Hints:
The protein is of the alpha/beta class. The protein is built from eleven helices and 19 strands. It is elongated, with a radius of gyration of 23 Å. It binds pyridoxal-5'-phosphate. Pyridoxal-5'-phosphate binds at residues 33, 35, 79, 159, 193-194, 213-216, 223.
Amino acid sequence: MPRPIAALVHADALAANLAVARRAAGGAKVWAVVKANAYGHGIGNVYAGLKGADGFALLDPAEAELLRELGWRGPILLLEGCFDPRDLDTCSRLDLWHTVHHEAQIDWLAAHKTKEPHKVFLKLNSGMNRLGFAPAAYRAAWLRLDALPQVAGITLMTHLANADAADPADLEASLAAFAGATAELPGPRSICNSAATLRLGARLAASPDDWVRPGILLYGSSPDHPLHRAADWGLAPTMSLRAELIAVQTLAAGASVGYGSAYTAAHEMRIGVVACGYADGYPRIAPGGNERGTPVLVDGVRTRTVGRVSMDMITVDLTPVPEARVGSVATLWGRADNGAVLSIDEVAGAAGTVGYELMCARAPRVPVRVVAG
Ligand SMILES: *Cc1c(COP(=O)(O)O)cnc(C)c1O
């Protein structure tokens, strides 16, 4: 039998989370952000669950091509725009919308030959200082684009650096920068990532032509964890990483487990060896020492890791699950068969990272199975 590990992708949960985004968006259109191979889920695996979106947003022209092959005929947006002038040919061929965030991209468009003019998203740098035109340069960029026969419509766009912050001051400063730079300009607007959609969607997406751009919320992770948990936002996990116990050990009092003997049993205890390690995408840094472990479900019962994460295995305390045996299912994150949920955010929090990184880190050797429920 193949190694007993799999990532389940829950199609119904994707659709339910998309509905949460739609409700929060206050009537605006919704891009389902599926960059990074749908946050590690696989674009082909999320397509059925997310095809109720108004469009798909991603970075890689090859992923856009895959969506067309899957049968998607609606809008697709390249969030980083074109990387070189030849990408414009791909945009014309596949009917892709694209972000324009620097001057050379306008030069390329001006030199591009296309039958159908392109829809573009003109990006303002509202304080993130990665991509986008400075507020003082924004209007000139808009005027240049507006004069091009290659352009059919300009959406005013920014990406917020602090939409998930507890203190709204920086977020409000970015919104003020956007309002200032776009004040005189017509056209739809696109401001909100997941955090802004959930917190401010109704305020920021004012017209039915505006677009929100949720990513992480679609995958059942809270964009502002630990301020809010996924359940607080009504989000359900879309990826369950599950592996079986491939061995059970009894530690005598004083015995240790794993590399570096990082956990020592205070008294006799049973531990399970799970067929999942850092080579599967489980974070090696997840704690398993005596003072603190990382949560895990075994047969749907909550317990913790003991000892270091190794390449192919982790070890877990079976004290709360005395009936566990070889073949019992460990849920590293997501939903267990009994309905118990371990949010990926909790595991990420224990490991000092975010749900985004854990999803994206699912290793290619972990097969994905799409399930309905
Ligand atoms: C990734 C991304 C998003 C989605 O962000 P989430 O925090 O996952 O919702 C939205 N807009 C842009 C430009 C992005 O790059």
